[in-house]
C-alpha cells in the first residue's frame, strides 16, 4: 500500500504544513514534514478540518496472471461437466451411477479413491465430471473468474418438476454462458411426468428439442442406471458444437476443486487442470498458497507424473490448504513464493478491514 506525508497532506488541503503538525501534536502524534500519516490518523485529522476522508482500497496484486495461448496451440480436450439441480432430484445418484457404469475400474478391485472429480469414458472418449454437485462450487469458481465448466447437466426429478433451485441453476448456467443438458430423472417412478417437466422448463427459456426448441432433454433413471449412455453421448455432441480446447504445452493453470488437511499426508488438494500440463516437482501458487508438487494421484488413486488439460488430480506438496474454487498457476519457484506472499498480505489487510481495524500502510484520499 501507500500513504501520504504531512507535507503532501497539507498541500492537498491547501493549508500550512505547520498547522497540520500542530494538529497532529494536539492529537498526540509527533510528526515532521516528511512523516507519513496512516489512514486512521488521516481520518481523525480530516474530522478536525471538516473534510471527509475516504480510505482507498489497496490495489490487488496481479492475481495469478494468465499466459495467453495462440489459437494454433490449442487442441481438443475432454469437456468438463457440472451437475446441477434442486435438492433430492438425484444429482449425487446420477454422478454415482455414471461413475459405476462408465469409469473403468482398476485391476486391483474397483475404485477406492474418491476425489472431487472423475473422468468417465464413452465410445473411447473422455468426459470430466466435477463430483461436487450443487451450484455453490460453480458460483465460487465464477466469482474467482475461472470458468471450469463447459457443460451443465440440469437434473430435474420427473415426479417433482421444476423447483426453486432448478430455476437458480438455470440462471447460473445462463449467466455463465454454459450450455445446459437436461436429465429428466426418476422416470422409473410411477408418478413421473416428463412432459410436465418440459412444459415447466419452457417457462424458463429451455424448450426441448422434440418441442421445436434447442434444449436436449434426456430421460434417465439414476437408480436403474437407465439413459446414462444417451446422456453421455449428448454431452459429447454438445461438446463438439463448442470450442473445447486448450494448450497442453505450457505451465499448468486450473482450479482447486476441494482441499483438506490430511493427518498423514499434510495439505491435499483435488485440482482440475484447465490448461497446460502439471508435472511432479513443479512449483505453483494455489489461491494464496505456495506449493511444490510432491506427488500426484489420478481419480483412481494411481500415482501419475503429469496431468494435462481437463484432468483432475490429487496433489500433495502444498504449504497450506487452499480454498475450493481457488485458481492455481505453475510458475518458477522464486516468483511463486513472492506472489503467494503478496496475495496473503492483501488478504490479511482485507480481513483487518472487515474486522473494523485499518492496517497501517493503507492509502487514503481526502475530500
Ligand atoms: P441430490 O440431493 O440431488 O444429490 O439427490 P440424491 O442423489 O441424494 O437423491 C435423492 C433421493 O432420490 C434419494 O433417496 C435417491 O435414492 C432418490 N433417487 C435418485 N435418483 C432416483 C431415480 O432415478 N429413481 C428413483 N426412484 N429414486 C431416485
Ligand atoms: Mg446430493
UniProtKB/TrEMBL annotation:
<feature type="region of interest" description="G-domain">
    <location>
        <begin position="79"/>
        <end position="227"/>
    </location>
</feature>
<feature type="domain" description="Tr-type G">
    <location>
        <begin position="76"/>
        <end position="249"/>
    </location>
</feature>
<dbReference type="GO" id="GO:0003743">
    <property type="term" value="F:translation initiation factor activity"/>
</dbReference>
<keyword id="KW-0396">Initiation factor</keyword>
<keyword id="KW-0963">Cytoplasm</keyword>
<comment type="similarity">
    <text>Belongs to the TRAFAC class translation factor GTPase superfamily. Classic translation factor GTPase family. IF-2 subfamily.</text>
</comment>
<protein>
    <recommendedName>
        <fullName>Translation initiation factor IF-2</fullName>
    </recommendedName>
</protein>
<feature type="binding site">
    <location>
        <begin position="85"/>
        <end position="92"/>
    </location>
    <ligand>
        <name>GTP</name>
    </ligand>
</feature>
<keyword id="KW-0342">GTP-binding</keyword>
<dbReference type="GO" id="GO:0003924">
    <property type="term" value="F:GTPase activity"/>
</dbReference>
<feature type="binding site">
    <location>
        <begin position="131"/>
        <end position="135"/>
    </location>
    <ligand>
        <name>GTP</name>
    </ligand>
</feature>
<comment type="function">
    <text>One of the essential components for the initiation of protein synthesis. Protects formylmethionyl-tRNA from spontaneous hydrolysis and promotes its binding to the 30S ribosomal subunits. Also involved in the hydrolysis of GTP during the formation of the 70S ribosomal complex.</text>
</comment>
<keyword id="KW-0648">Protein biosynthesis</keyword>
<dbReference type="GO" id="GO:0005525">
    <property type="term" value="F:GTP binding"/>
</dbReference>
<feature type="binding site">
    <location>
        <begin position="185"/>
        <end position="188"/>
    </location>
    <ligand>
        <name>GTP</name>
    </ligand>
</feature>
<keyword id="KW-0547">Nucleotide-binding</keyword>
<dbReference type="GO" id="GO:0005829">
    <property type="term" value="C:cytosol"/>
</dbReference>
Amino acid at each position: 500500500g501507500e500513504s501520504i506525508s504531512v507535507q503532501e497532506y497539507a498541500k492537498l488541503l491547501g493549508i500550512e504544513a505547520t498547522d497540520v503538525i500542530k494538529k497532529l501534536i494536539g492529537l498526540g502524534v509527533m510528526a515532521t514534514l516528511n512523516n507519513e500519516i496512516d489512514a486512521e490518523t488521516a481520518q481523525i485529522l480530516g474530522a478536525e478540518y471538516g473534510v471527509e476522508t475516504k480510505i482507498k482500497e489497496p490495489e490487488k496484486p496481479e492475481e495469478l496472471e494468465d499466459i495467453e495461448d495462440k489459437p494454433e496451440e490449442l487442441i481438443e480436450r475432454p469437456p468438463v461437466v457440472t451437475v446441477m439441480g434442486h435438492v433430492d432430484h438425484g444429482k449425487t445418484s446420477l454422478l454415482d451411477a455414471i461413475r459405476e457404469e462408465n469409469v473403468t475400474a482398476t485391476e486391483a478391485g474397483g475404485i477406492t479413491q474418491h476425489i472431487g472429480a472423475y473422468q468417465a469414458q464413452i465410445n473411447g472418449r473422455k468426459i470430466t465430471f466435477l463430483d461436487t454437485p450443487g451450484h455453490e462450487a460453480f458460483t465460487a469458481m465464477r466469482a474467482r473468474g475461472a470458468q471450469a465448466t463447459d457443460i451443465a447437466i440440469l437434473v430435474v426429478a420427473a415426479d417433482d418438476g421444476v423447483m426453486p433451485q432448478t430455476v437458480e441453476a438455470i440462471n447460473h448456467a445462463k449467466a455463465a454462458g454454459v450450455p445446459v443438458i437436461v436429465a429428466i430423472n426418476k422416470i422409473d417412478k410411477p408418478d413421473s411426468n416428463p412432459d410436465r417437466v418440459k412444459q415447466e422448463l419452457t417457462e424458463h427459456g429451455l424448450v426441448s428439442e422434440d418441442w421445436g426448441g434447442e434444449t436436449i432433454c434426456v430421460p434417465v433413471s439414476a437408480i436403474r442406471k437407465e439413459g446414462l449412455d444417451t446422456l453421455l453421448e449428448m454431452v459429447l455432441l454438445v461438446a463438439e458444437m463448442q470450442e473445447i480446447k486448450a494448450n497442453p504445452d505450457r505451465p499448468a493453470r486450473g482450479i482447486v476443486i476441494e482441499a483438506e488437511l490430511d493427518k498423514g499426508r499434510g495439505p491435499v488438494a483435488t485440482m482440475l487442470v484447465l490448461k497446460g500440463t502439471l508435472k511432479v516437482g513443479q512449483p505453483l501458487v494455489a489461491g494464496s498458497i505456495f506449493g511444490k508438487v510432491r506427488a500426484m494421484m489420478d481419480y483412481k488413486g494411481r500415482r501419475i507424473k503429469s496431468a494435462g488439460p481437463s484432468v483432475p488430480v490429487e496433489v500433495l506438496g502444498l504449504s497450506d490448504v487452499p480454498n475450493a474454487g481457488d485458481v492455481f498457476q505453475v510458475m518458477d519457484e522464486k516468483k511463486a513464493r513472492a506472489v503467494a506472499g503478496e496475495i496473503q498480505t492483501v488478504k490479511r489487510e482485507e480481513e483487518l478491514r472487515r474486522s473494523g481495524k485499518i492496517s497501517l500502510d493503507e492509502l487514503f484520499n481526502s475530500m
